[in-house]
Design brief:
113 residues, mainly beta, Thrombin, subunit H, six-stranded antiparallel β-barrel, 1 helix, 10% helix, globular
Length: 113
């Protein structure tokens, strides 16, 4: 049986940096703080404190973070692809070329998963 990681379109990299997810809900805007644990060209994995209730698969959020070596913060729209406890997977939506290049440059110095 083929390993799931071998079927991924993009290499994932181990990392650890803070970020926030901003989501609009009927009850109001929510900002959730967490830590990015894995980063790829097309998405990332974040750990959020479970007591915050977490985000819901299918929601669109705006991720706000900075990467070491970048002078500016990145604000990227993303789709919540899955949630497993405090672990959340995101797929970037409509990422502009400059952001994607910044992410790839940052990943060159990381350990692939």
């Amino acid at each position: 049986m083929q390993n799931f990681a071998n079927r991924r379109r993009y290499t994932r990299y181990h990392t650890d940096f803070p970020l926030s997810a901003n989501v609009r809900r009927p009850s109001g805007n929510i900002r959730v703080e967490g830590r990015c644990r894995e980063l790829a060209e097309a998405g990332l994995c974040v750990i959020f404190p479970e007591e915050l209730g977490g985000l819901i698969a299918g929601e669109i959020v705006v991720l706000d973070f900075s990467l070491r070596g970048l002078e500016h913060r990145l604000c990227i729209k993303a789709l919540v692809r899955y949630r497993s406890g405090s672990r959340h997977g995101f797929e970037f939506v409509g990422v502009v070329r400059g952001c994607r290049e910044s992410i790839l440059t940052f990943c060159r110095n990381l350990q692939p998963q």
